[in-house]
Amino acid sequence: MTAIMLIFVTALFFGSVGTPLVRKLAINSGFIAMPKADRAHTEPTALMGGLAIYGAAIGAWLLITLVAVLLPVNIPGLPEFAAILTGASFMAAVGLWDDRHALPPRVKLAAQVAPIVLVFLMGVRVSLPLLSFGEWNTVINFIITAAWILYITNAVNFLDNADGIAVMTSATTSAIFLLIAILNGQQLVSILAAAVMGASLGFARYNLPFPHSTIFMGDSGSLFLGFLLAVLGIKIRIPSNDIQITWMVPIVVLGLPIFDTAMVFISRTRRGVSFFQGGIDHTTHRLARLGLDKLSVALAVTVICGALGWVAIFITQATLAEAYSIAVVLLLIALYALWRIEFKASYNFRTGRTPVKVETETGKL
Q1: Residue 362 covered by a domain
Q2: Residue 363 forms part of a structural domain
Q3: With bands split at pLDDT 50, 70 and 90, how would you rate the model's confidence at 359?
Q4: Which of 15, 72, 149, 268 could be joined to 230 by an S-S link, Cβ 3.0–4.6 Å?
Q5: Quick one: average pLDDT of 8-26?
Q6: Does residue 85 lie in a domain region?
Q7: Is 364 a member of any domain?
Q8: How many domains does the chain have?
Q9: Partners of 325 in the beta sheet?
C-alpha cells in the first residue's frame, strides 16, 4: 500500500508541476490548437498536455522501479509491466505525431496495432475460458483483445472533446480500477492505476474550465490514457467471484466512453457522415445544449463514471442473478438515453447545427 501511495503522490506532483512547464514549451514551439468549426473550443489553446501526463505517469513508475531495485522490493510481472509501458509510450508517440501532422485516420489506427501485439505476446490478453476454438484459440483471443484495446483507446480519444472530459473520465475510472485491484490484491494493476489517477488529477487543474482550459492533452494524452485504461480492464481480476459475472466489470466501469463512441457512430451513420471526422455531436456536447456550462458538464461526466464504478464494485460481489439483472437495467438505461438524445432529438440538438435546406426549381425539398 505504501508503494501505491508513493506512485499516486509522485504522479500527482509531477503532473501539477510539469503541466505549466509543458504549456510554456507548447506556446514557444507553436504547438497550438486553433479553433475549428468541428471543435467546441473557441480560442487558441496550448496542445501538448499529453506530454505532461505521460511524464508524470512514467516518472512515478520509474521512481517505484528504482526503489524496488535499491531496497529490493518485488514487483510481480516486471516483463509484462515493461511491455505495457513500452506500448503506452508508443501510443503517446503516435498521438503526438498526429497532433502535429494530422495522420490519416486509417494510418493512425493501423499504427495502434503494434503496441497491442507487444502486450498480447507478454500476457495482456482477453481469453474465453468457457469456450474453446481449438487451434484457433490464440487467433480468436488476439482479435478480441485488439478489438477491446482499439475501441477503448479511441473511445477515450473521442471523449476528449471538451474541457476536462477525458481527464476526469480517466481519473475516475482509474480510481475505480485501483480500488478493485487493492481489494483483490493485484499489485501490478494497482501500480498502473495509481499512476494514471495521479497524472490525470495533476493535469486536470489546468484542463478543467476554471474558467477555461489553458492546455489540451491532445491525442498524445488521450491515446496514452485510453490504452492504459483498456489494459487495466483486461488485467483486472476478481478471484472471489465467477468469471461468468466478473467479465462485465470493466465494461461497466468504462461504460461512458463505450456508450459515447457507439452513439456517435450511430448518429453519423444515420446522417451519412464519416465517423472519423470531427464534430460537436458527442454526449458532452448534448449535455451542454441542455443548458449545462462547461464545468457542470465535466462534473456530470465525473458523477456518471463514479456511479458506474460503484455499480461495477457491487457486481464484483454479486450473485449471477443480481449481476445479470443489473446488466439488463444498465442496457435499458443506455438504450433509453440513446433514444432520447439521438432518435427522438432534433437535428440541431444532435449536431449543434441548423439543417441545410435544399431549394429546387419547384420549391423546397
Answers
A1: no
A2: no
A3: very low
A4: 149
A5: 94
A6: yes
A7: no
A8: 1
A9: none
